[in-house]
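Two folds, back to back.
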Amino acid sequence: MQSEHFKTAKQYAEDIVKGKIPAEEHKVAGCKRFLDDLKRTDLQLNTKEADFVIEAIQKFIVHNTGEDLSGNALMGKPLILLPWQVFIVYNLVGFEWKNGSKRYNEAFIYTPRKNGKTLFVAGLSWGLSLLYAKSGSQLYIVAASSKQAGQSFNDIVYSVKDKGLKNFLIHNSINEHSIVWQSEENGKVVASMRIEALASNPDKHDSFICNLAIVDELHAVPAKEYNRFKEAQKAFSNRLIVAITTAGDNMNSFGFRRLEYAKKVVKGLKDDAFFAYLSMAEQDENGNVDYTSPIQHEKANPSYGVTIRPQDMLNDSLQAQNDPQQRKDFLSRSLNVYTTAMRSYFDVEKFRASDQKCAEALNMPDITALSQLPIKWYGGADLSKLHDLTAACLYGTYKDIDICITHAFFPVVMAHKKAEEDEIPLFGWSDDGLLTLCNTPTVEYSDVVDWFKSMRSMGFKVKKVAFDKKFGREFFALMKAENFNMEDAPQFYYAKSEGFRRIEKKVNDGLFYYMGSEAYEYCVSNVHAIEKTDDMIQYEKIGQTMRIDLFDSSVFACRAKLTDDEKEKAASSWEW
């Protein structure tokens, strides 16, 4: 505990928690987790090995490009870890269980661009490989492209040559990027390490074995690739996979879902093997960022004032303010805030803010409580053509709050393939009760009918169900046979505009509740819309691999409600 590096890590955590260093709430939570873990009796801190990794980095890794803030050349000068980097190393290497095995085997490091991430990856690769050399360390640096993965690898090669080390075998060609070292005693290998840089290609990385992996820019790497290297480590007790990334603009990506999981972990979700360091700007309840504020710039960038020039950051933020085309890149690359895809019509953060506000107003009702409310419910359905996503919805209003309950269906025989190819978290939705995996090659109409029947049995008073009859006359007939009042809802854009606009307005007013369904958020973020004349709107999915079915079903149900409300008003006016 007398280690100077430990003191640096602990002081950094304390300064973040006390507010001496500006930080967003999830970074604060992560630092508080570290301080609380120091008090745990089931953990111990190995300062010797943490110090070894830090010293291995600082005494070996050197800059091969760049300048400091004063314009002085950094080439050939040693990498001196900043407090936030020391903090990360101490977490990853220092914490052990009482039996001596390392606590963390998975890490998520989330920082904006230009904070020294690439050289830090090189240093981390080097230090960890040396630490576990007696176990025959094998480390892979993986990125979406060979060029990206090669950047950190080239930093290691440059450092090896700068130090004049001769006993390293280096392959650095178009076919292979690897560096190998081994130590022998009496003709026997007693320690070895191998570092290799690879471009993402999950179909070719199925039989690898390694104890260490660093996945760079996770937002551009598919889930399948990440999981391949996670599985490759199962032969080792002391194993570690580190995902290090900045934000992207696809909120349906694997990287975004890992970010959401990391947020839950630092906020208290029990996962003792998962470490997260999250550095980003603060967002208000509507997801907005005060992106011209130097305070927010410092919150997002842990190397602010060292590798990040404050004046340059301020100038870029003013450009983003004056030129909307620059804004999304500035938010995602410089402030580490995920933005929706460029063609997406909706801002998902507005949906989340509305949902949270309504949940508090309704006192967080569950599905059972909603079934007992005096609400007239309207149904909607969007059936898949073959083996694809099918959606059903109930829609109603209570105390001016529109409530949307959705459920999805997908054939289990195609679920694994589509989940990987199109990056749809089908199995996560299934675990959360948002989706039914059907045991048939295609979704049977009877499965959807059974869902509506189960909701009715629970107590939901379903007045009407809207569905485009020409896309499933059999479903239409089955529903009528079960005594549901069916309404034909042709999929003309001018007819769907009314439901679309109603949902849009309710969301903007903070009066739309969808029970926090991640499946519904996924579909909302995939909606691309074009404004037509007379306030009409035509919408479609952003790309062929995206899905909007749950949103579509809610539009059908909402329009059925609006049509029925209009008829009731006309009838009451006529009676008067």
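---
second:
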Amino acid sequence: MFEKLVLKSSPSAAGEGLSLLLEPSITIFVGPNNSGKSLLLREINSFCQNGNFQVKTKILDSILCKGVDHSEAKKYLESITRDPKERERVHAGWTPVILRNNATSIDTNAYYMCMEKPNKNIYNYSMWYLNNKTLNIDGSTRASLLNSKSKGDLKFPDNSFAKLLTNDNKRKKWRGIIYECFNIYPAIDASEGASLRIRFSKELPPDELSLRESTLDWMRNAIPIESVSDGVKAFSGILLEIYGGDPEVIIIDEPEAFLHPSLAQRLGKELAEAARTERKYVFASTHSAHFLMGAIQSGATVNIIRLTWDGTVATARLLPNDKLKQLMNDPMLRSVGMLSGLFFQNVLVTEGDSDRAFYQEINERLLAESDERAIPHALFLNADNHQTIPKIVEPLRKLGIAAAGIADLDVISKGGKEWTKQLRACGMPEGLQESNKNLRNTVFEYLKKAAPEGNSDPEKYFKTNGGINLLSGKEKETAESFCNDLEKYGLFLVRKGEVEAWLKNLGVEASKHNWREKIFKAMGSDPESDGYVKPDKTDVWNFLGHVHDWLTNPDRKGIPD
């Protein structure tokens, strides 16, 4: 089937397109809105239909396919061969076949040639094989997966319902998963005419292949698909196609649609496992960290590709499973929802939850005013304190995500290994770290000396009494330069000292006790009221503007290639 997937974009603006060797497995595309996930799925589907013979792609560069030997090609041809229709003329060297329920004929020699060397005959290979083996599950398809199907000849089942009905092991596995998730049993009803239907019940069904009275009673009293939720339909239908369907390629856009987060996680796990055991190539796009987590935790091979598009530059980066597992296994990182950063263009990491809520509200007001300093597509996360900011920023940066750290000025009070962690997390080159450490020591000494003589805690005084504004002349110039250097690498220090120093004109006491509640009350909640605080050209509005400039700069420093 497939050998390699090649995209046009790479992890950075410059470089060769990302390529990925493919085996039967699940490949998941993640990224912010409008990054091209759904478009890429459509381009893969188009390739499977016609080899992109008539389509100019924007994201997909190519897919290379594996050839098969003559005996395997012959076996597949026999499976799709049909008897000629009455008065149908079949040319010599051609074979009458059924493709996608359409009766047609194909050139037998050309068929064997494309099956043995598909990349040289990709149009025929796609039309005669790939298209027949591909299922594209989009919004409309998802809703119809459990619609009734023809019973046909059960000795030679030719659709997913019939194949699952005649395979006890797969049907029991499918039924067991659905029961674990929804506490109802699905069954395939073969008792009505020439159709097969899906029904549900709280009771375990008797043998579906039997027409004994007990089976008929169960079917009479069972719940029809029209009476179950969209989530049950989507979950059950997708897994039915995985276990009972013939397609080797399954393309699913947002498989988590209609599902509770716990069910999205279970579906991710089941799809990843089934792709491996059923030898399927599954391509999915998702906005769900839970679906992604389930797939990774399955233990099966999962290819995760993060796409971005900022209106000018597109990137594609393969995310390593081992690093993502580390993130999911860390209780602190799980608790702050760090994996959600994969679905945002920009991430801001603050010291605590009050800081997070405040800066997020400032950004919301900038967005409401269409202010150029507003940060688009942003996720705000909070660490426990400034020492744990690098624990969140560093792994996000390694995944190619623009993650900025925001800390009160007293972060510089921790030198040595703690400061090294900050510099390493923000991607400052090792050759510059030593000079920055020395500069930190110098600025910290300046700030301690700025405390009034006799102050009991000079190492904290500057935080609550003006920050670097306590300095003057060359000392202040040095502190400004120190902060500027850090901002180049996405670490932003509150030069006034602390988050409570912003918007002092509102008269809110800089106290840790209920400060967030008080500042939000002072800022107002009704945009139409006179007292509602809107952005101006100073203070925290400009501070967040500096963060915006780094996040949206395609040449920003601190993101590894």
